[in-house]
Amino acid sequence: MFRYVHTNLIAKDPDKLILFYKKVLHCRSIDEKRDLKGDWVDRLTSLKDSHIKGEHLLLPGYGDDHPTLEIFSYDALKESVAPEINRPGFGHLAFEVADVEMTLSEIIRAGGGTLGEVVTADYPDGVEAVLVYARDPEGNIIELQSWRKKREL
């Protein structure tokens, strides 16, 4: 067996971030909350006395168990570097939505922000995409996208 299971975000305020992803981006709880500590966690993370708490949220548009967005927090957090769209490593989470502008407004009302502008891009076969990058309340980058047939003039 080989399958994609989850993406992990480490949060400063996991409860707030979990609520944001549930409310604004339609992720849902599948009752997979975690409160992890002990020797095996220390060995896995290479951290002494590590303690991890958080929850797995089912990503919208998939089955009843995976893939999930795993939002965790450690008792001891290191200073973070603000995510940037062109920084090597993890870049962004992408969500296909019915209305990019409306979802962006919901993100902003819920404490997130914008990054760049809403754009419309032409793709082959008469398809266009409406796209924007945004930020969740902790600064992680989210891409919103909506696909449709080009409008005839």
UniProtKB/TrEMBL annotation:
Coiled coil: none annotated. Transmembrane segments: none annotated. It comes from the Bacteria. Residues 3-147 form the VOC domain. Pfam families: Glyoxalase. This is VOC family protein. It comes from Lacrimispora xylanolytica.
